[in-house]
């Protein structure tokens, strides 16, 4: 969050301290408390004008985020990727210097223990064939209204940056539509597609593969 605060105009809480708890091994963050309610809570009460105001703010912030680019795919600090699509082998995926090697990492994670499954191997070949030629941009990697704090129709903070990093440009969109609540008011209002540039083909490949595996 300090990196985002120092390099963008995106509203994030100020971080006062970060440390590892000696007893649990958990990383703890002491940060500013920002007053507001989550967009998940507020969205149903908005009229159309309020919704559009929030959409335009979020779109501006995510466009600003995407202007931060990297020659590698990694966490924000250049360390290995941290993402739900990878397994629990922390530190075992990346950083990647090419999109091809990132795709190979996904395939390795998704086929682990299922190398003989012909359908999964076919879907992974589809991924390897289609996912090429993307820029590596800063990605929040957990786009969800529960992570956006608002007061009235003003976005006052974007939270939960622990999975952020540099990923292929389609990644934010593909992850945002990975298992959301499709019956929620914000999904029915197409919030993801209104805020983020859509990458339908790439999202289709990722979702089809991941849904089949899981």
Automatic annotation (TrEMBL):
It holds the Pfam family APH. This is Aminoglycoside phosphotransferase domain-containing protein. Residues 9-186 form the Aminoglycoside phosphotransferase domain. PANTHER family: AMINOGLYCOSIDE PHOSPHOTRANSFERASE DOMAIN-CONTAINING PROTEIN, AMINOGLYCOSIDE PHOSPHOTRANSFERASE-RELATED-RELATED. It comes from the Eukaryota.
């Amino acid at each position: 969050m300090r990196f985002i605060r120092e390099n963008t105009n995106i509203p994030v809480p100020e971080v006062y301290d970060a440390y590892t708890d000696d007893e649990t091994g958990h990383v703890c963050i002491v940060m500013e408390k920002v007053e507001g309610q989550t967009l998940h809570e507020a969205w149903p009460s908005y009229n159309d004008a309020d919704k559009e105001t929030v959409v335009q703010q979020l779109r501006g912030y995510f466009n600003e985020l995407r202007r931060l680019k990297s020659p590698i795919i990694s966490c924000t600090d250049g360390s290995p990727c941290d993402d739900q699509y990878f397994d629990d082998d922390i530190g075992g995926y990346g950083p990647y210097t090419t999109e091809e090697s990132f795709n190979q990492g996904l395939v390795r994670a998704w086929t682990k223990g299922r190398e003989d499954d012909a359908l999964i191997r076919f879907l992974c070949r589809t991924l390897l064939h289609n996912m090429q030629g993307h820029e590596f941009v800063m990605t929040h990697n957990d786009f969800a209204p529960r992570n956006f704090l608002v007061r009235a129709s003003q976005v006052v903070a974007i939270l939960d940056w622990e999975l952020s990093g540099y990923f292929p440009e389609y990644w934010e969109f593909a992850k945002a539509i990975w298992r959301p609540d499709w019956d929620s008011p914000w999904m029915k209002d197409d919030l993801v597609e209104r805020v983020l540039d859509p990458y339908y083909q790439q999202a289709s490949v990722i979702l089809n593969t991941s849904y089949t595996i899981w």
